[in-house]
Amino acid sequence: MFEEIDVLTLAPAFVEAEPSGAQSLLDRAQSGDADAFCELCRTYATPLLRQAMTVCGNAALAEDLTQDTLVEAWKCLSRYNGRCRLFTWLCAILLNRYRNTVRQKRPLPLSSLQCKDRDEFQTSLDRLIDNDSQPDEAAQLREQAARVLQCVQALSPKYQQVIYLRFYVDDSIESIAAALGCSVGTVKSRLFRALNKLRAVNALDPKFARTERKFLSL
Fold first, then answer.
1. Distance, CA of 191 to CA of 185 (rounded, Å)
2. Which residues 6+ apart lie within 8 Å of 213 measured at CB?
């Protein structure tokens, strides 16, 4: 059965293209070349930090998550099979590390962040906004983006994963399934339920959201 739904596309600017030369470095790293992996770390550290900042909204925690993600990636690099982009796979690890972190300590609300953290979090939201937007519209879009992020953080981890990987990292459901080690049907089902939960709390405001048409099979 297929159902056509509107899918929120908040952040195409967050989708990172695989850098040139990454495959050669990856092949060497998977053969045990630590120097090649260090070069990969330098390539992906900044994009990962941006994603971590979006996920947690705290600069210090984002830096820790980025470092932990790269350490974990080195430990399990042999398990990366190329069925998804390397960056998508790294972000899946980052989300798992964040999930483990919040089991012990809840994420800080935006209002409680230090000035530096609020500025960096605001910068991450600014990246969600179309550069051609008018000032008033941009302010409304920032407010909407912040509300969506807060609502996403209130979802259970399995729903957070698919939302972040679908709309902030990668536009391929097949790639997300490979990164999470589950079926395409599972990703579609979780995405469908996650979007319904966001709609239920009015997080997806069609006035501000740019949408695209997708078919999700259930």
1. 10
2. 4, 6, 7
DSSP conformation letters of 183-216: -HHHHHHHHHHHHHHHHHTT---TTT--EEEEEE
More confident position, 166 or 214: 166
Extract the tokens encoding 194: 């996650």
Who has greater pLDDT, 190 or 131? 190
| Phi-psi map region of 82: left, alpha, beta (phi>0 left; psi -120 to 50 alpha) | left
**What token pair was written down for 174?**
């097949």
| Mean pLDDT value across residues 130-155 | 68
Mean pLDDT of 192-202: 85
Cα torsion 181, 185, 191, 192 to 10°: value is -160
Mean pLDDT of 99-119: 55
Q: Are 63 and 117 in contact (CB under 8 A)?
A: no
Match 């690099």 to its residue by tokens: 77
Q: Is 21 left (phi over 0), alpha (psi -120 to 50) or beta?
A: left
Q: Burial code of 77-91, b = ≥16 C-beta within 10 A, e = fewer?
A: beebeeebbbbbbbb
- As given in the structure block, the two tokens for residue 95 are 């989300």
